[in-house]
Give the backbone structure.
Amino acid sequence: MRGSVLVFLLMACAAFAQDTKKEIQKYQQMIADGSPVELYELEGETLWKKPQGPKNASLEKCDLGAGPGVLNGAYARLPRYFKDADRVMDLEARLLYCMETVQGRPRKEATQRVFGNDDRASEMEYLSAYIAGASRGVRMAPGTSHPKEKEAFALGEKLFFHRAGPWDFSCASCHGADGKRIRMQDLPVLYKPAAAGPVVATWPAYRVSNSQFKTMQWRLNDCYRQMRMPEPIFASDATIALNLFLTATGAGEPYRGPGTKR
Amino acid sequence: MAGPMKIRATLAGGNTEVRVLMTHPMTTAQSGQPLHFIQNVSVKLNGKAVIEAEVSQAVSRNPVFSFRLKGGAKGDQIEVAWLDNKGESNKIETSVA
Amino acid sequence: MNRLRRTLLGALLAWLAKPLAAAAAWNENAFGAKTPQDALKGIGAANPAPSKDIAIDAPQIAENGAVVPIEIASNIPGTTSIAVVLEKNPFPLAAKFDFKDGALPYVKLNVKMAETADVRVVAAAGGRYYSAAREIKVTIGGCGG
C-alpha cells in the first residue's frame, strides 16, 4: 500500500516535472520575443563607429578575422588564430587588441571596466552584442586547423577536466555528466557536441534575473568563481583556450544569439 | 540622456503589429534606489493618438510593448513616445514595412 | 476678422506652450493604491463583471519574477481600455491602456511580480467594466526543487 502511494507520488512528480519543463520553455520563448538584446546591439553599433583613444579612431578598421571592418559572420568564426598578433583570440581578446592597435588605447584603460552592471553595461558587452548579432544564421566554425589553434583546443580540453581549488572542482564536475541540474536548470554536458552547440550558439546573452548583458569571458570567469578558484585574467590564454574547446565542440550549430536567459 | 529605443511596425493578418523597446531602469520604491520609472506611453498613427497608456514601476526594466492597430498600409507613420516620473522623455518614429 | 485671427493665434500659442507633462495624465490615486480593490476603485472599476471574452496568455510558471510576459486581448465589442492588476504586488495597478479609434484592444508587456499571484485584467466597454484573471507561479517549488 505504502509502496503504491510512493509510486503514485513519484509518477505525479514526473508528470509535474514534464509540465514544468513545458511551461518554462513557454516562458523562455515569450521573454526572447522582445528581449532588450536589440537595445544592446544598437548601443554597440554606436560604440563600434565612435572615434576614441589617442588615435581618435573608431573600431571600423578592426579586423575580426573576416577582413577590416567586416562583421557579417565574423563572430561565428571565433576563436581563431590571428597572424598579426601571433595568438589565438576570441572576440573579446580581439576587440582588446583593436582598441590597443587601431585606437592606440593603453591596455590598462581599455580593461578597467570589462564587465558592467545593471545600470550600465561595459563597452565590451555592448560591442559583443552588436558583433555577435551580425552572425545570426551563420554556422559556428571556429579555427581548428592552425597548430596554435590545435594547441589551444588541447589546452582547453585539459582545463575542462582539470580538478583544482578548495573544492577540487573542474568544469566537468557540473558539466560532465547527464542529468545534473541546479534548481530547475539542466546542466549541459559541454564536452558533447549536442549539448555544447546550443550553448555556444546563444552566448553572449542577456540575463533577465539581473537585467545584464553577459559575455563569454564573463561566463567562464563566473564558472571559476563558482568553483572557488582565483579569478582568471581577462582574455587570458586559458579562458580563450576553454572558449575554443567549447565552441569547437559545438561547431556546426547556426548562431542564434545573443540569447536571452533566465 | 535617454538610452536608445527600437521600433518595428509590420503588416500581419490585415492589421499593423507594433513592437517597441525602450531603455529605462524602471527602478521601484523597494529597490532602495531613487524611484525612476516611465509613467506615460503614447502611440500615434500618422500624427493622431491611437493608444495612451499609464504605467507603473511594475513594468520590467527596459520595457517592451506590442500593440496592434486596425488595418494599416505600407508607409503609415507610427510614433511611440514615453515620459517618466522625472520629466525625462524619448520618442521614436518608423514607417510601416 | 482681426479678432478671429487673434483668437485663433492665441489658441495656437496656448496649445504650443502646453507642456508635455500636462498633456500626459497619471492616475496617482489608482497607482498609489495598496490593495487590488482600491486600485480598481481608483480607475472607476470597483465591481467588474466576470468575463470569458478577455484572453490572457502567460506562462503558468515564470522563472524570474523580474520579467513576467503577459499577452492580453479583449474580445468584448467596443473595448476602450485594458488595466493590468498584479494582485500581490505592493502597488497592484501595473498599467492602464486606453485604446482610441484605430487601435485594437491588445497589448503584450513584461511586468515584475513579487510572488505567485493572480494577474487580473479589467476591460472597459460601453461604460461598463469586465474582468478575468490568471494565476502565474513565480517561485518554482515542486518535487525535489
Observations:
- The two ends of chain B are 29 Å apart (CA to CA).
- Chain B has no helices and seven strands.
